[in-house]
Specification:
about 300 residues; TIM Barrel; 10 helices
Length: about 300
């Protein structure tokens, strides 16, 4: 480009910008929107009233039964483990008007579907945990789960393998806000294994719930050392699967919840569904609140 042409280009650009600005200033302002007539305003007001009425009716009929934390006589978190293996019991538990927490097995056949169902209605929020498979002392139940597609963290794994498996499981349950161990009576007592796993959870900003499948567990201790918010299970609701035993375990948890926040773990079964459907409304009437698991972090719980 010649020197005169190179000088002319900036001048033309400035002139174009100036012209565009002048045209903008000279342009007619947009027309005022037409005034809303009385009839139109009345229709809008009625529609707003109907929307409020419908929301109130839904809350009364289908909304969660909640108690503000400061007003509750007791504080319970109920975690449902082994989620993703079936749908019928899951749907029954999801229909309950209480903020249960659902821990999803990453290799389960319905892992993706149940997460979608849990997230579909933001009027009834439900927390999702990753139910991370860990090696038990008895390998028999682990082998049954392996046959169904679960990948277990093993005591024989290197730290790098444990981290890789943990991250892969997290990727399959991407909406998890926390993690608890599935089985793990062998691995959770291994300090080196727990030390290898916890940093990956910390990087994702998750909390850890120690399911306490063995008295020898070191999982909570290692989680705290890694800087994770940490909880521990207090009561297994269905250790004995008989309905009356489940009711007794729930009452034990309720008694404990009156003195400190209490974490309960249960599994999908017809007996669990029926006991919770019967008892949770009664507990609500007694002032016992059911909260997402993360709410138990508000007040540290004893192990």
């Amino acid at each position: 480009m010649s020197r005169p042409a190179s000088r002319l280009a900036p001048a033309l650009l400035i002139a174009w910008v100036a012209l565009a600005g002048a045209l903008f200033l000279l342009a007619e302002p947009p027309p005022e929107p037409p005034p809303v007539g009385r009839e139109d305003q009345a229709i809008r007001d009625r529609m707003a009233t109907w929307a409020v009425r419908d929301a109130e009716q839904w809350t009364e009929r289908d909304g969660d039964l909640t108690i503000p934390w400061a007003e509750a006589e007791g504080h319970l978190a109920i975690v449902i483990d082994d989620v993703g293996r079936e749908l019928d019991l899951f749907e029954d538990l999801l229909d309950l008007r209480f903020a249960l927490t659902f821990s999803v097995l990453p290799g389960s056949v319905y892992a993706t579907g149940v997460q979608q169902r849990l997230l579909v209605d933001d009027r009834r929020p439900r927390e999702i945990l990753l139910h991370l498979p860990m090696e038990p002392l008895d390998p028999a139940p682990m082998q049954l789960d392996v046959a169904e597609g679960e990948i277990f963290l093993l005591a024989s794994d290197s730290p790098a393998q444990l981290r890789t498996k943990t991250l892969a499981a997290l990727d399959r349950v991407p909406h998890a806000v926390g993690v608890n161990n599935h089985m793990g009576s062998k691995l959770s007592a291994d300090p080196n294994a727990m030390e290898a796993i916890m940093p990956a959870l910390h990087e994702r900003g998750l909390f850890f719930l120690d399911s306490r499948t063995t008295p020898a567990t070191l999982a909570a201790t290692q989680a705290e050392r890694a800087g994770l918010p940490t909880l521990s299970r207090h009561v297994f609701l269905d250790h004995d699967p008989a309905p009356e035993a489940i009711r007794a375990a729930l009452e034990q948890a309720v008694a404990r919840s009156r003195s400190e926040p209490t974490v309960v773990i249960a599994h999908p079964s017809r007996a669990v569904v029926e006991v919770l459907a019967d008892e949770l409304p009664r507990l609500h009437a007694r002032g016992i609140g059911v909260y997402p698991a993360s709410h138990m972090l508000v007040t540290p719980t004893k192990r």
